[in-house]
Hints:
- This protein is mostly helical.
- It has one domain: MetI-like (MetI-like fold), CATH 1.10.3720.
- The protein is 71% helix and 0% strand.
- It has helices spanning 6-34, 36-53, 55-58, 89-125, 127-142, 145-155, 164-174, 178-191, 195-202, 207-215, 220-243, 254-263, 266-269, 276-300, 314-319.
- The longest helix has 37 residues, at 89-125.
- The chain is elongated, with a radius of gyration of 26 Å.
Amino acid sequence: MQITDINNSQNIESASILNKAKGRGSSILSVITANPKFTFGLSVVVFFVLVAIFAPILTPYDPDAILVTGAHAPTAAHILGTTGLGQDVFAQLVYGARITLIVSFSAAIGSTLLQIIFGLTSAYFSGIVDDVLTMITNIFLVLPGLPLAIVFASLASGVSSSSKEVVIALVLLFTSWSYGARVLRSQTLSLKERDFISASRASGETSLRIVFAEILPNELALVAATFVGTFVYAIGSEVALEFLGLGDVTRSTWGVMLYWAENGSALLTGQWWLFIPPGLCVALLCASLTFINFGIDELANPRLRREPKLKVNKKQKAVA
Length: 320
């Protein structure tokens, strides 16, 4: 009679599951840290996300509260100075990161979903579906993105202040998806002729499952790259629209800070603390996302990877 120790077998299975999870986590971490561009870009993005989340902890001041009279240079009490209305610039900077990141991230997510739907669907189904979706994509592709966003945002200037960020996110969403959809369509046209797609069709899999379970996983690197590129465009466009006064100028964002700095002639009066911090944050965030994009390209394309250099000592050189 054979006796099986159920507790020991369960412990072995749970231990193996934990070991697999740890192995996967370490492999993902090694992939992230192997590329210095990706590591640097991701670190900066995570830093700004943490700043936005923990803004109430980083500063005791309300971004809209009038604390002093007039604009003052940075001091120990206000490390980035105050605005012309006496508001703390550092408080506006950390709280403004929330709105800028949320609006840009929402626009990038929505734009990426449209890219996937239009790009993959039109390429796989072809025929009349491809003709219609490609025509729509080409129409949006030839339209100038930022000027069109300025027109739409100015037409929606009559909406309530709480809805202006939603309007800007929707405007950026619908003006940034066409190029990525075109790129995904080209890649899908190549993938749908592969043998594994023919085998999926022969096994009776549905078209939607083939598109989203077979083709899409093979384009994740390209989707990630287009998402990051759209994110950069959304951040720049969102700041530009608010700098032109098309957003809610009563709320603290990086674009609104630049808007009030320009209205107050901060550059002419030498009040550098009003425009350099938000401008530097926008530049640093966009640069970090660009580094992430470069890192994704190098991780996805073996030809772009830099192989580690082998160290050859003097004896080996002499033998050679």
